[in-house]
Fold this protein.
Amino acid sequence: MTSQTPVGVAFQIGELVDHSRAEAAEKFAEKQQAGLERHLARQKQAEKFGDLPGSVSRETLNAIADCESGGDPEIVSSSGLYYGKYQFSPDTWESVGGKGLPSEASESEQDYRAALLYERSGPGQWPVCGQ
């Protein structure tokens, strides 16, 4: 059985702390890179869906989105029936040309499709938040 000196124990603890810091820094860098990649993908989508159709303003859409989802484009309702920034049902999303689930579409595409829906049907599509 070997005994550890206080200096030896402190050295081992220091090595563990340094290793943990390095792992944390690596994970942070990976998260930053993933965030940058998401941002660049959103910018590319924004170029595709940048101009809103119709006459609805971004301010109006932002107010609806803030009320519906807190502006979170990836949110799914607790019931699992409504998706994305504007809480689209899959049928409504499809009716304005969306594919897949709204919460999986880019934020700019959700804005674009919400503007289409607003132009077609007015604020009544969001009975609480559209008023």
Q: What stands out?
A: The chain has two domains: 1-49, 53-131. The chain has four helices and no strands. The two ends are 76 Å apart (CA to CA).
